[in-house]
Amino acid sequence: MKNKILFFFFCVFSIGLISFSIQSDPELIEFVVPKKWPKPVYNFAKNPLTEECFQLGRKLFYDPILSRDSTISCASCHLQYTGFTHVDHAVSHGIEGRKGTRNSLVLINLAWNSTFHWDGGVNNLDVQGINPIQHPAEMDNSLEEVIRRLSISETYPALFKKAFGSTEINTATIMKALTQYTVSLVSSNSKYDQVQRKEKGISFTDQEKNGLKIFNTHCASCHKAPLFTNTFFASNGLKIDSLLNDVGRYAITQRVKDSMQFKIPTLRNIEFTFPYMHDGRFRKLKDVINYYSDGINTKDRHLSSQLITPMKFNEIQKKDLLAFLYTLTDKTFLYNKRFSFPK
Amino acid sequence: MRILFIIVTLLFQFFVFGQGNSGLQLTPLFNGLPLELDKNYILEDSSWYKFSTCRFYVSNLSFFKDGRLKEKTNEFYLFDLDEPSSFSITFKNEDFDYLSFSIGIDSTTNVAGILDGALDPINGMYWAWNSGYINFKLEGTSSKSTEKSKSFEFHLGGYLAPYQTIQTVHLPIRNNSKDILIGFDILAFMKEIDFNKSSNVMIPGLNAVQISSILPSIFTVLPNEK
Fold it and tell me: Is the per-residue pLDDT at B184 higher than 50?
């Protein structure tokens, strides 16, 4: 009799457990906005963050299944340890060694951006992922094929069910999952941030302080804290590469005033995101500083008005500025296990 | 059992059709006759046309009576000449004397992120590199084309100022509780295009705006003999 009662409770408990695990809703996670930062631009109401969806997006991000010959993943050009860009490569690399025309951008603090790509051609983070999948010089795949592969895989349908309540996989669910991962890549714990938060035992060196002063005078209007970009576009006067013939934002808007304008990139983790500029023409950060100090053709007709007066830094100022830029490195972000290859 | 089935079917029909719904159908035409894909049309002046793709979005369908809005749908419909049956619009039989609809997608929807159904980028009506919908797509070959291959491709879209391409079609029509048949003549469209400027338009911009502006004039109400 006692055994029967125990068995009865065991059954009830098991059924309860099973039904709970079947019906449990995805676990909502909060997007934490760092203190004193502006409100994110990304509309989280349309794609509420959940642990299941974030993990699905993370798996997709690292999975070469997205590329036509299954050789490259998003992470191939966006490596975490280097601020989610392709270090040491001037322009992006696709399948079969194909080369793109631009330096792969960092994926940092995307939630505060309303346009994506160097030319701002992408108007919503949710649709960004379509580009690398379809681009012939990147993954050269089709959305149909990606959906087909994911739908017949052993693991994905169950993961989509966990994240979206259905095993049916479509463009929207793939893109929303990828976005949940990329929008979560927030870097806000550099030395600069720690100093701003007045954390104990953290302070700028004299060199860094001098660098900050130079930065505030010459760089901060475009590379505005705390994002270190104002998220707009500008021309820094770089001579057009005659092989790439990249006219920047003009290709998107067809407005003459947008000629040679490119997205102002964030400077967070700039220490590790070399090479620099939209076509990766400068290998070292020192080269970038030299360019802004002495290299700008101030007669360039597209040049941003803010760059018309030459900066002419002396050698000490250049070193100070460099020292300050290094304070934007955020190792807790670059080594955050939550963003790394899912094991 | 059989009787039950008939009753259920009748009830179903009553609910679906009994409430006074009518349909709106689009009929693609070439020189006044139904347009067929991949058919070679030769005109008297010996110019020729052959179409392989004809797709476009219809949105903002609105019904008016005496200048006042009676009903508006927020749906987006994709017309595809390859699958004309996939296009079906039903509406309530209200009293109206005028209707309007847009060819294309409004700017708010163009920036709304990832969408599904007719707006799923998988439908081939979406630019990923310059996020936004292609409002109207027509592809084929023609003697008019300035290309060696005689091909032409018009992918018309763009929502950013000053190159907005969405168009609105206005058609006076009296509701007579029948399906509405609307024709659009592709020859009328082709005749207005200046092929010396371009036989291919595949980006937003001035060309796309100019060619899109032809579209409203090619739509007409056809008599419904049913």
Answer: yes
